[in-house]
Amino acid sequence: MVVNDASNVRVIPAIGADVIGSVQSGYVFESINARSADGEWIRVDFNGNEGWVHLIPLVILSGDINSLPVADPRSMPYGGF
Questions:
Q1: Which of 42, 64, 74, 80 is at 20 to 30 A from 18, Cα to Cα?
Q2: Are β-strands 32-35 and 19-24 bridged in parallel, bridged antiparallel, or unpaired?
Q3: Residue of 52 and 63 predicted with greater confidence
Q4: Using an 8 Å Cβ cutoff, are 74 and 37 in contact?
Q5: pLDDT at residue 54 above 90?
Q6: How far is residue 60's CA from residue 46's CA, in Å, rounded to a whole number?
Q7: Contact 33/44 with Cβ under 8 angstroms?
Q8: Angle subtended at Cα 53 by Cα 47 and Cα 57, rounded to the nearest 5 degrees
């Protein structure tokens, strides 16, 4: 759940990455399916698209982030794009 005023959903797990959308405080992500290698980002289903959200503005309501598979495009050879 987003607890900040808003949180950006990005194309890749990086602060400077393109933003595909934003969510307001109180928004609950229904589908979280991976985490970044550094454990600072989660990959979510956002309006039918894959996006990344930083963990800082979030509160995890249930589950264990560390049990998610690592799927971090920044760690792929040659950028993975």
A1: 64
A2: unpaired
A3: 52
A4: yes
A5: yes
A6: 17
A7: yes
A8: 120
